[in-house]
Amino acid sequence: HLGGNRALRHFAFPICFILVAVPWPTPIEAPLVQGLMRLVAAVATETLTLFGIPAQLEGSLIRVNNGVVGVSEACSGVRSLQTSLMIGLLFGELKRLTIARRWVLVGATLAIALVANFARAFFLVWIAATENLSAVEHWHDIAGYAIVGAVFLGTLAMAGILAAPDAKQRADRQSNASASRRHARLYTFRLPPSAFILLSCAYLLVVEAGVEIWYRWHERSFVATTNWSVRWPESAPGFRELPIDDNVRSTLRCDAGREAAWHASLASLPNEPAALPTNCTMFFFRWKPGSASILRARAHRPDICLPNTGWRMTHDDSVRKYAASPALALPFRHFRFVRDLGDGRKIFAQAFFCQSEDRVPAREPDRFDATSGRTGNWMRDDRVRVVREGLRNQGQQVMELVLLTPNELKRGAAETQFARLLPQVIQTSDK
Predict the structure, then answer these.
(1) In which element (H, E) is residue 415 found?
(2) Are 383 and 392 in contact (CB under 8 A)?
(3) Is the sign of the CA dihedral 137, 138, 144, 150 positive or negative?
(4) How far apart are alpha carbons 272 and 266 in whole angstroms?
(5) pLDDT in tens, 206-235
(6) Positive or negative, the Cα torsion across 59, 340, 69, 295?
(7) Percentages (nearest 5) of helix, strand, coil residues in the chain
(8) 395 backbone φψ class: left, alpha, beta (φ>0; ψ -120 to 50)
(9) Residue among 50, 51, 52, 72 nearest 62 (CA)
(10) Angle between helix 133-162 and helix 78-94 axes, rounded to 10 deg
């Protein structure tokens, strides 16, 4: 053998340390991110109020006199926690701390990261309130780098305190030095036999070929769907482009994306106000085949994103197909939201969401569509099911159209208005 248990213990930390780079499981990361976003926003808002700066908390948004500042996923602090965990583990190993002291070091490092991130959020919102929103972009990355520096220096200082030399530690170091000399031969490994190398290469080839065969076998019965896209109403009153946050783009990793808003007057209906003034907001994202995970298009749904910006979902009205053209009907999921504006005023949102694939299974073409009525939470069971049934990105796209009204629309009225509006914003073409 090549060193036995001694070599295994010696190399255990560097081998396991690689696992720090593995993304956290969704059931752990998703609630943590959402909770941190709200906590950071709440702490920053309360601190601003203590300093005499008016601020109003709306979900993970903070409204100040110059506008609205959002605490996004990147600002939630989860990345700071991941970085601090890595730094704490590394310094604990470099300083050869005991297991108990390593736990103390990691806990202290996480605390430093949380405090630093709260300070960063307060600083950025303070800049927005006292200067302007554009100044926030200038300081955003600088404040992020400052957090990394604070965590690094704080952890280094804490590790030095925990590793203060005493008689026992000096004896341990001398013992370790003697053991290192005795075990120096561990580094004079022999080269693995050629058979081992050949078997390793064969294993990798079999795994890669097996994965490709598995997916292609399931995809043999897939059929193409009708190609459709968005017709942006650029001549509509008040039409304007809405910038898409860089953090949203980096999370979705879409090949094309656009968001816009415009004004409209909904046609009058029985028992509804005539010509109800409406603000329309629409986004459209597109992923080319094989360019991203099948889960990307399912990560930006209104029931996930709008509550983080201060909206409260009141109804999930499930799925209904709407005619986009004489030859095409698309399934849209209908959500209803309300948002308190203060002083008893409210605004209502009717969100219609559609996600579709370029190619789908022939037998049940809509069973994996996010708007099929079986959305799921895409935790472990859903992810395993996707692999088991051989599903990968065949080309996918999502569209969301939100109708904002000062008065609440009933479900039937909202869906009738959307049905009238949809053919105006959808265009189809042959494959």
Answers:
(1) helix 411-425
(2) no
(3) negative
(4) 10
(5) 988 998 898 888 888 888 888 899 999 888
(6) positive
(7) 50, 25, 25
(8) left
(9) 72
(10) 20
Residue 175: pLDDT band by 50, 70, 90 thresholds? low
Q: Which residues contact 428 (CB under 8 A, 6 or more apart)?
A: 226, 227, 228, 229, 324, 325, 327, 328
Whole-number Å distance between alpha carbons of 421 and 350: 13
Residue carrying structure tokens 């935790």: 379
Q: Tell me the pairing of strands 426-429 and 240-241.
A: unpaired
Encoded amino acid at 46, one letter: E
The single-letter code of the amino acid at 189 is F
How many residues are listed for the chain in this entry? 431
Q: Which runs of consecutive H residues, i.e. helices, occur in 131-193?
A: 133-162, 167-182
Burial of 240 (0-12, 13-18, 19+ CB in 10 A): exposed
Residues facing residue 316 across a β-bridge: 335
Let me know: does 138 contact 123? Beta carbons within 8 Å: no
- Taking CA atoms, 304 is separated from 85, 258, 309, 354, 406, in Å, by 27, 19, 10, 14, 23
pTM, to two decimals: 0.63
| Inter-axis angle of helices 26-50 and 99-130, nearest 10 | 50
Amino acid at 216: R
